């Protein structure tokens, strides 16, 4: 693999955690290998690896963009990642306020629901 891929895999593990990445890697097939390589190199090895924004800022942007575009499936994964990126509950709530104003209350409301559920699950697993 390429240097960008290796960097991307390292960043992906740092942000999402080894358990998540190990599950994704175990589920990878020949069919989705090109896609997995693409996201590892582009999303993780280029965008998330850049030092122009902090990981905290990237978490906030990512959750807001997922909510604004209605891509709710990945919101719980990125909420869980905040434990490693430094984005707080208050940061995420603030980001979703922007979603409500600039993209619509229903999307922000649904994202808040998902975030609340995920935070509750995370707190339960700490007990």
TrEMBL record:
Domain Carboxymuconolactone decarboxylase-like: 35-116
GO MF annotations in UniProt: peroxiredoxin activity
NCBIfam families per record: decarb_PcaC (TIGR02425)
Name of this protein: 4-carboxymuconolactone decarboxylase
Originating organism: Pseudooceanicola lipolyticus
Annotated gene: pcaC
């Amino acid at each position: 693999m390429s240097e960008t891929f290796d960097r991307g895999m390292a960043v992906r593990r740092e942000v999402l955690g080894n358990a998540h990445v190990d599950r994704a890697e175990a589920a990878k097939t020949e069919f989705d290998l090109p896609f997995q390589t693409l996201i590892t190199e582009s999303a993780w090895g280029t965008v998330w690896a850049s030092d122009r924004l902090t990981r905290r800022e990237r978490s906030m942007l990512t959750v807001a963009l997922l909510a604004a575009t209605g891509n709710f499936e990945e919101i719980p994964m990125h909420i869980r990642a905040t434990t490693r990126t430094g984005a707080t509950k208050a940061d995420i709530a603030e980001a979703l306020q922007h979603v409500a104003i600039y993209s619509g209350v229903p999307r922000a409301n649904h994202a808040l629901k998902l975030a609340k559920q995920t935070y509750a699950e995370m707190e339960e697993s700490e007990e």
